[in-house]
Each structure stands twice: as structure tokens, then as C-alpha cells.
Design goal:
Blueprint: H1 4-9, E1 13-17, H2 24-35, E2 38-41, H3 42-55, H4 63-71, E3 75-78, E4 81-84, E5 87-88, H5 96-105, H6 109-114, H7 116-120, E6 128-132, H8 135-139, E7 145-150, H9 153-166, H10 173-189, E8 202-205, H11 211-236
Helix pairs in contact: 2-11, 3-5, 9-10
The structure holds 2'-deoxycytidine-5'-monophosphate (DC).
Amino acid sequence: MKPNHLLHKSVPVIAIDGPTASGKGTIAQLVAEHLSFHVLDSGALYRLVALAAQRYRVHKDDIATLVMLIGGSHISFCEGYAQLDGVDVSSEIRHEPVGKLASAIAMHAPVRSALVACQSAFRKPPGLVADGRDMGTVIFTDAVLKIFVTASAEDRAQRRYKQLIQKGFSVKIDAVLRELRERDTRDLKRATAPLKPAPNVRTLNTSTLSISESVNQVIAWYWKIKPTYSAKNVGCG
Ligand code: DC
């Protein structure tokens, strides 16, 4: 019998990283459904901490209190449900100011470290599709498949704009594009776990590929890799 951490390590992970509104969350969800894998939306976790900080008036740079919030009993996050003080806040965390605050608190290394165990716990049989900024570079460096999703800032802003209008928010496309660029800069330039392609990453450009083409491509890559991966695991038995 293998020790627990080795069993855990043998669970395949598909890491999907990319900037905001690139389509990575939708791709991750659909790939996970197709393979009957678990899914981790790590951005939702950062958003949940941001919402908790907003609720309890914790400043974005008050690192010690942010870490205490993560370790405390206010927030819980499992299988797509984000709860704050026992209430489902899965839609509230999607609001733009929460995303902006999430990006700001995500710059702090201790905040990121405090969230590692929670993210690793999502790695369960038969497999995991994890999306975020540092899935392939930091959290699941041994992911069997690493994908970097890109799209132009203009295309991403259009998508975000449509989503917000559909939800009844009154927004201007110029403001959405400006915010998205600011968020990109923060996520790309931060010192800890900046958004960058992992080594051996495969790139998907959703400006030129539809979501279903992207999903099919990820699944095709996975099936190509999987036989080698399984064979290696059997050999380690
Ligand atoms: O993917 P998203 O837009 O929901 O993420 C919200 C913010 O959380 C994002 O701007 C940066 C941060 N984040 C991060 O730093 N690392 C991750 N793995 C996921 C999200």
C-alpha cells in the first residue's frame, strides 16, 4: 500500500492558467465534466477571501488579519460552493469590485501560502482540473498537462462587458477594458507567483478558437499524454 501522499501525487491534474476573462474557467469546467474530474476554480477562493475582507473591513494590505481570516471559521469553499459565515456567496464573489480586491490581496505571499493546503486538497481521484494563475507554476507543478489560455485584452473586455450587462450592471466598455488592463498588470507583475506560462505549457488562444474547440483540444492533449502517464504510475507500483 502506498503512503497517502504518494496516492495523492498519482492523481492526474490538468492545470489551466490564464488572465481574467480568457475563458479558462469555462474550459476547465467543461473539461472536468467530460472527464468526470473534480474542478478547482482557484480565483473563486481568492474572491471569497476578498469578500470576507470587504465584509469585515480588513484592509487589502493588512496581511496578518487576512491570513487569520483564511485560517478562521468565517469562510468555507468546497466543490464550487463559496460560503461566508454559513451563507452561500457564490454569486456575490463574482462582482467586479470583489475581483479587483482579490487581485490586490493575491499579491501578498503569506496570503498565497495560507491558501495552498486548501487548493491541494482538491486533488482527489479520479483527477482534477484546476484553473487560476499559478496552477502549473506553483500549486500543481507536477500537473500531467499544463495549459495557458490567452486572448486579446479587447476580446476579454468585450466578454466581461456582455456578462456584466446580462447581469443587469450598468457599465461602459472603456471602463471594463481599463480595469481589466490594470488587473492584468497586477497579476503579471507581482513578485510572488506572477501569471506566466509554466515550462512545457501548451497555449490556447481563445481569440481564434471557440470554447468548444478549446475544450476538444484540451481533451485531445490529455488522451495523448494519459497512456504514458498511467504506464509510468503502474511501473512505480
Ligand atoms: O480568475 P479570477 O479573475 O476569478 O481571479 C480573481 C483574482 O484572484 C485574480 O485577479 C488574481 C487572483 N488569483 C491569483 O492570484 N491566483 C490564482 N490562482 C487565482 C486567482
